[in-house]
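Hi everyone, sorry if this is the wrong subforum. Our group has a chain we'd like a structural model of before ordering constructs, and none of us has done structure prediction before. Sequence below.
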Amino acid sequence: MKVLIYSAKPFEIPFLKSALKGSLEFEFTSERLNSKTAMKSVGFKAISIFSADDASPIVLEKLRDFGVKYITLRSAGHDNVNVKIAESYGIKVANVPEYSPNAIAEHAIALLMGINRKLVLANRQVMKNNFSLDNLLGFDLNQKTIGILGTGKIGSIIVKILNGFNCNILANDVSRNEQLIDQFGVKYVSKETICKEADIVIISLPLTTETYYLIDESFLQKMKKNAILVNIARGAIVKTVAILKTLDSNGLAGYATDVYERESGVFFFDHSSEEILDKELERLVNHPKVLLTPHQAFATKEALTNIAETTVYNLNCWEEGITPLNELT
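Answer:
Right subforum, don't worry. Here is the predicted structure as tokens:
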């Protein structure tokens, strides 16, 4: 089966090639899937896409007309694919639900430590031979109250890591994880309680209609003014205008994020020779209270190996007439 890999990045191609087995044939394009590039799929029975690709209804209609039968995502999140429309068009969709929750959870802690201990600023200062500490004060995590929004696989690992820092952990989710309660003393409370009591809030939620712009002006106004917000989930869960306004008015101590609500077409590409046209993104990049990384939480050798192997597994199952365990349709 011929498979077109959209949004193929140089760092991931070797992992995909190493995982390749069976009768699959991979072709790679660095271009994102959208309404204009959908025609590249002509002649391919299957395609593989990433989180920045567009599999909206109009694109899916084109893929169907071009003969595409299978779409396998190289990500856990699938909010960029209209799964119901795909199913109605006879296109099967699968994802990689567990490529490495550890990679994401560990990056959340890296973001937290980075912004709290002002590591970027410290590095910039010493590169200019400035070794003063006046601007570099942080705080101990020991005994701090941390709110976790979402205690799925990633959120659960974040809880386990923070337990090692001797933190008091509050959580909010649609369902309670009894193991986290028993082993780590996690208390499930309302979002309002997290806002009122948490020194740090970490977002580990999927993007849904319920979580879109969950972190808005109202939510931020309820948080402690010296709190830090960490987003390791999806950019559109946080309303950028609201977070910038809150930071500017000293309503929060800091915002550390690996994602941005309009990152599609920007993140994963080198724009160093270009001007940033998105003014809100430009403000985030240059804001002294923001630590932004380019959606790199998943970028570990272990995660990329798992993504590649699961992608190949999904495709081989379809080729053999078997329903993969990760099928979403």
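For your construct planning: The CA atoms of residues 13 and 24 lie 15 Å apart. The chain has twelve helices and twelve strands.
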